[in-house]
Amino acid sequence: MSEVTQPSVSRRAVFLVGGYERNDAAGFFRRIGREMDRFCKCWSVEATLEKPVEHAQVSVTTAAVEYHGPDGACRSEISFLSFDDIVKHDGARPFVVRLLAYLVAFFDYVLSGTMFRFFATNWRFALYFLYPFVMLLVFAWLATTAYRLAGFLALPGGPVLPAIVGAAIAYAVGRFIGRRYFVFHLMDLWSFSREHLHCRRPVMDARIHGWAGLIAERIAAADYDEILLVGHSTGGALILDVAHQLAERLVVEGRRVDFKLVTVGSTSLKVALHPAAKRARMRLEALASHPGVVWTEFQALTDIINFYKCDPYARAGLSHRRGDAFPRQMQVRVRDMLERDTYRRVKKNFFRVHYQFISANSRRYFYDFFMICCGTRPIEAVRGDALPISAEAGKTAEAVS
């Protein structure tokens, strides 16, 4: 059977929701600009990032990329859908408030059985879930040990001075380790995730509604060859909400529902596996009813902050009657994206490995975030046995450059 040739993309709209992080749109596009140099060098192509334009009313910033390579030319408009202000608000709360909110979230996940579903689905992610709680126990153990050791010195004031010593040790160690290794940030992440799945984050709901409205307006105003809704990490869950809102809006307006979902290093199952996440599962099920919505999910074993080889739709307890895979799952190898020395340097930093999904490669590989978002190849053409640019074309480009 002959292979079906996918049409080339010359104009694309990309709408990206990133993870739960403090990085704003300006920081995102600065990083994109730096990473693009590596992308161009890797593939022997040209790609120019234009000046970002902010749409502050809906927390969206857009920058166009002009791509030229041996496979043709493409103009991609990349929009970063930001919620860093919500993340910063969470992190600015008094520590006691953050700690109590986290403990409520942690025991909610445990008592609801969701933590055990994490272990049954992907034990690596379950360990990631336990990480901040275990670190808090370590801080408490250090404080208790310091208190007991100080008590042996028979200092004046009874237990007051040992208690102060223990608290000081816990504060000093927690301040250094907790911030350096994202313990407190991950506390806020799990608090946010619990509140969102319980529909207790109206500000986030309003943000998602605004994003869907802007996307609907944008795709009505221009003729794009490809429309990508991309979610990374926590954004892998939020982009499903955006997609549902967008699809519902298009149906109401009598317009065709035709866009593509791309989730990379997604943690959407941290929401969908919770028994209280009825809204998330309802929205996911509704998305499957639109044949024009094509969903591709990329996963990696090395990345512990995703659900490797797990179907996020089926694992949510849902089924559909579509003729295609929903989603189409693709497993990638991070070590094949990077030069050997680079991979050896970053492989033990699980946050850095997680962000390779939205970083430039230093080796040619079938999965390349920048090639997906900027090149001429449509997402349907991404396959594990084919590079975005053929070897012959790549050699020609390198000879010319």
Features:
alpha/beta; nine-stranded mixed beta sheet; 15% strand; disordered C terminus; 15 helices; 401 residues
In short:
This protein has 401 residues and is α/β, with parallel strands linked by helices. The protein is built from 15 helices and nine strands. Strands 1, 2, 3, 4, 5, 6, 7, 8 and 9 form a nine-stranded mixed sheet that branches.
Number of helices: 15
The strand count comes to: 9
Net shape: globular
The succession of helices and strands, N to C, reads: EHEEEEHHHHHHHEHEHHEEHHHH
Summed over residues and divided by their number, the pLDDT gives a mean of 92
Major β-sheet profile? 9 strands, mixed
Write down the Rg: 23 Å
- Structural class assignment: alpha/beta
Poorly predicted regions: 394-401
Task: Give helix % range.
Answer: 40-55%
Distance between the termini: 37 Å
Strand content: 5-15%
Describe the structure.
This protein is of the alpha/beta class. It is 50% helix and 15% strand. The chain is built from 15 helices and nine strands. Strands 1, 2, 3, 4, 5, 6, 7, 8 and 9 form a nine-stranded mixed beta sheet that branches. A hairpin with a 4-residue loop joins strand 3 and strand 4. Helix 4 packs across helix 5, helix 5 packs antiparallel against helix 6 and helix 8 packs across helix 9. It starts with 10 loop residues before the first strand and ends with a helix.
